[in-house]
Amino acid sequence: MKKILLSISVFMLFRMDAQTPVIVKNITAGAASSSFQELKPFSNHLIFSVNDGVNGYELWISDGTTLGTKMVLDVNPAVGVNGFGGFRYGDNNVAFFIGNDGVTGNELWKSDGTAAGTVLVKDINSGLNSGSGAYESMVKLGSQYIFTANEPLTGDELYVTDGTAANTSILKNINPGSNSSYPNELLVFGNQVIFRASTDLTGRELWITDGTTVGTFELKDIYTGTSNGGPTYFTVLNGEVFFQAATNAEGYELWKTDGTSVGTILLKDIDTGLNNSTPSNFTNFGNKLLFQARTASNGNELWITDGSTSGTTIVKDIEPGTGSSSPLSQKALLNNKIYFSASTSTTGSELWETDGTTLGTKLMLDINTGVNGSYPSNLIVANGFLYFTADDGTNGTEVFKTDGTAAGTIMLAQISPSTGSSYANLLTLVGNTIYLTANDGTVGTELWKIELPATGIINELPELGIRLYPNPTKSNAFKLQFDALQAERATITVTSISGQIVYEEKLDNLPFLKQITLPKAAPGCYFVKVATDNGSVTKRLIVE
Question: 121-125, 259-263, 413-417, 496-500 — which one is most confidently predicted on average?
């Protein structure tokens, strides 16, 4: 019998339990689904909007328990009428939202998570069911909150509040008179706010405010005259704001500003001439920005910039030729890499990774093998892992987890084994809990959670001790050769990408060579795990 000669040389973090999704509460009784709009972290709670089939969309809160999941306030007490119209701003202390109590119309409300602390801030557009809208998302600037609201005399303009009625007022009537300036895309930039707004004289252009009337002004008329420069997708990097804008000479291209008119410049005409590269999906990556841009020769592909013209280059033509991979609509940062969705004609929309270089930009895993794509969405990072939803082509849309490697990518659970898809959605991290909406096929779409336990440590065997071949295999058969791995016993487990065990065998006397045949294994990706008393190693296997 062989002696255990294995030395443990690699350690890794892992979760000590299965992280199985569990339902928090069946909000709409029976098999009918609740209808969710938004989930937001709020202190150590989840605050959200849901229609329970009786009260319409209202404001709810949850501490992760059934009893602690409840409506904060029935803002509009009429049966089946919505009292909630969307979040505008939230932090650990206050959530601003659009509320309609059936009297004032859509106005600005705030909540501290309690019924008593959920109140109308101000009836800005006074009168019965008039409503100011307060359409644009808020930003916090110092002790003030900047937002957009509407009054008949001024139209949609820029407003300011400290959360009290007395100190809620118009900041500036940017487009004088009753015509609206429609300020939107507010972004905090140092001690100022960058945004875009329209006037009859200059069109939709770049504006800035310090929270005062005098300090609110047009930064630059990018497309001179009454035409729209249309600045959009504002993103801060290294003390500058990057965005997309247009002129009559370049079309929609990459611009940047340092907050001054002179420092607002075209960074690069990516698709030269009047063609539009329409840069978008800006993603901070260290001291650089990743983004999507289009050229006539490459389509919509992955680009990067360090803020200089020469440092603005294409990273990779993921879908070669004039086709588009349309990257970065979904993305997250994990272990100094950006994981993102991208689409090719051979894989469909799948999960990719990049370190900002051409060689380091690659398909992480073809979860739904073939051309259909798994459409990875809802990407969030928690405790060193990436969680997301995807459709593997067999189990429908479920929750997946990855450590950034193909071998470390698994489906956490099939929430809806009966219907073929739980349509898991709206993944939201609150502390050590991931909340989501899902349908298990029994109670309809409801609120679920995934608890993330404390981190533990296990031993991981050196991969050099095991060889797996042929890989890929065309016959459902492969061999495991144990070169340096010497142990008395081991368990071999083969799982599909969805986590289903397709083969398992315990060996009391570990041979030098072990042949394994997978019964009725469909083509795809599988994971072969060899576990001994001292640790384990997992290898990826492709069945063609």
Answer: 259-263
* Largest CA-CA distance found in the chain, in angstroms, rounded: 92
Q: Where does 251-329 show beta strands of DSSP type E?
A: 251-257, 265-268, 280-285, 288-295, 299-305, 313-316
Residue-wise burial string across 297-317, b where 16 or more C-beta atoms lie within 10 A, e elsewhere: ebbbbbbbbebeeeebeebbb
For residues 449 and 435, the answer to whether their CB atoms sit within 8 Å is yes
pLDDT of residue 13: 29
Look-up: residue for tokens 């576990």? Answer: 531
Rounded mean pLDDT of the chain? 89
Closest CA to 522 of 538, 498, 504: 498
Encode pLDDT of 441-456 as tens digits: 999 999 999 998 654 3
Q: pLDDT tens for residues 102-137?
A: 999 999 999 999 999 999 999 999 877 677 776 677
The angle subtended at Cα 329 by Cα 327 and Cα 331, nearest 5°, is 90
What would the mean pLDDT of 218-226 be, rounded to a whole number? 97
Instruction: Please report, for the chain, how many H helices and E strands are present, in that order.
Output: 0, 45
Q: Which residues pair with 425 in a beta bridge?
A: 437
- Residues 326, 292: Cα–Cα separation, whole Å: 7
Q: What percent of the chain clears pLDDT 70, i.e. is strictly above it?
A: 92
Nearest residue to 298 (alpha-carbon basis) of 279, 323, 278 = 323
Q: What is the mean pLDDT of residues 187-204?
A: 97
Burial environment of residue 355 by CB neighbours within 10 A (0 to 12, 13 to 18, 19 or more): middle
Angle at CA of residue 269, ends 265 and 272, nearest 5°: 150
Cα dihedral sign, 470-472-473-478: positive
Can you tell me whether residue 375 is helix, strand or coil?
A: coil
Closest C-alpha to 363, from 328, 314, 318 = 318
Residue 210 has pLDDT above 60, yes or no: yes
pTM above the 0.85 mark? no
For the domain 463-543, what is the CATH code? 2.60.40.3080
Return the HEC string of 75-129.
Answer: CCCCCCCCCEEEEEEECCCCEEEEECCCCCCCEEEEECCCCCCCEEEECCCCCCC
Q: In what order do the strands lie in the sheet with 22-25?
A: 22-25, 445-451, 433-439, 425-430
